[in-house]
Design goal:
There is one protein chain. The protein is mainly alpha-helical and 285 residues long. It contains 15 helices and no strands.
């Protein structure tokens, strides 16, 4: 082997940090794919196979059941309110963290990650202690005939709390990778802060915003513990309805409502399309 070829190979190894044989590479890929298929692919495949095992007619009939439809409506309402609210907060927080230096920046990042560290049981308990009948604000809420806990507003608040880190955490590395040069150039040319964000920053991060919103929307469909704590009497959210159906017996109806996982597939499609169009996503140019 020539010295030039060895030098090229060494340069390539340094560029990719390691240089393994094709056998080792194939083994690692096989292990990773086998793990994904076994613990992710097969369970999801089973969900959709069972959902359609008795035909489309039973699938649509299951979705039109009064209890299932009520659960879907409540979950959609909570998601439709929480996702836009978190989108505004997430974009603002990511822009501040990625583009500016200020006191309390580390504290803000820690607070954004707080729902990841807090158990859903503790999260539900926090809302009960704050807004329940014996909670801090319970007497005032009762005096003004405002009901948050065991009502739709409680479900919305809990969904916002659980899902708000996802959008900010999705956009922070993307904005950091974007850098500040383009914004600084726009400001030097006389653009205001809003014009800089609207005309420079937002078009670049738009695919990431859409993907993050879809991810938060999908996560809002899976808040079982908090929904179980805070759902109104006689009304359930989608995960609680699935749990109730499982207790009655594993039926295609359970899998029919579980098919909301399609949202994650849409998110992946958005990311793939963004990469094809050359837009940076997930912190990569």
């Amino acid at each position: 082997m020539s010295i030039a070829k060895l030098n090229n190979q060494a340069t390539l190894c340094r560029r990719i940090s390691t240089c393994e044989s094709s056998g080792v590479t194939l083994l690692l890929i096989t292990v990773a794919l086998s793990y994904l298929v076994l613990f992710l692919g097969l369970p999801l495949l089973a969900v959709f196979v069972e959902a359609f095992s008795k035909g489309w007619a039973l699938y649509w009939a299951a979705l039109q059941e009064p209890d299932a439809w009520s659960a879907i409506q409540l979950t959609l309402i909570a998601a439709a309110i929480s996702v836009p609210a978190n989108l505004v907060f997430g974009v603002a927080a990511a822009w501040a963290i990625a583009k500016f230096e200020f006191k309390g920046k580390s504290l803000l990042i820690t607070l954004i990650d707080l729902p990841f560290a807090v158990s859903p049981v503790v999260s539900g308990l926090v809302f009960v202690l704050l807004f329940g009948a014996q909670g801090w604000f319970g007497p005032w809420l009762q005096a003004h005939d405002i009901k948050l806990i065991f009502a739709v507003p409680g479900i919305v608040l809990a969904t916002i709390f659980v899902t708000f880190p996802f959008i900010a955490r999705e956009l922070i590395p993307l904005m950091q990778a974007q850098g500040k040069e383009e914004e600084e150039a726009a400001v030097s040319l006389g653009a205001s802060g809003w014009q800089t964000f609207h005309r420079v920053t937002l078009p670049i991060i738009a695919p990431g915003v859409v993907a993050a919103a879809l991810f938060a929307f999908a996560v809002s469909f899976d808040q079982f513990v908090i929904s179980y704590f805070l759902a109104p009497p006689g009304v359930s959210t989608l995960p609680v309805e699935i749990y109730a159906a499982i207790r009655k017996g594993f039926t295609p109806e359970v899998n029919a409502v579980s098919a909301a996982l399609v949202t994650l597939a849409i998110k992946s499609l958005v990311e793939w399309q963004a990469r094809r169009s050359g837009e940076p996503l997930h912190g990569a140019h």
